[in-house]
Amino acid sequence: MAVEFIGIDPDTDRDHCPTVWADGEAQEISLQGWKPSTETQAECEASSPANGSVPDGEAIVMIPARMIPLIRETCDAVERAQLR
Predict the structure, then answer these.
(1) Of 62, 66, 57, whose CA–CA distance to 34 is shortest?
(2) How far from chain centre, in Å, is Cα 59?
(3) Can you give the pTM of this predicted structure?
(4) Rounded mean pLDDT, 61-80
(5) What's the average model confidence in pLDDT over 6-21?
(6) Residue 1: its pLDDT value, please?
(7) Would you say 34 and 61 are in contact if contact means Cβ atoms under 8 Å apart?
(8) Are 23 and 29 in contact, with CB atoms under 8 Å apart?
(9) Average pLDDT rounded to a whole number, residues 20-31
């Protein structure tokens, strides 16, 4: 696995921070984020095409919109690896 650190939330305290990584070999991105509130979790599940369930091994995480540039950079890194 060739995981590449891309960045963390620019407004973080550096201890508890949303983070993004790219894995070019696996063609995946990894996100670390905040757990949603019970209400947000329920809203996400209720609007899910999977009929309201988040399978074991999956999670809903919250990422601040200010991280969109980092998420784009992560997607670009995975795409670049795919072209090699």
Answers:
(1) 62
(2) 10
(3) 0.82
(4) 93
(5) 88
(6) 57
(7) yes
(8) yes
(9) 93
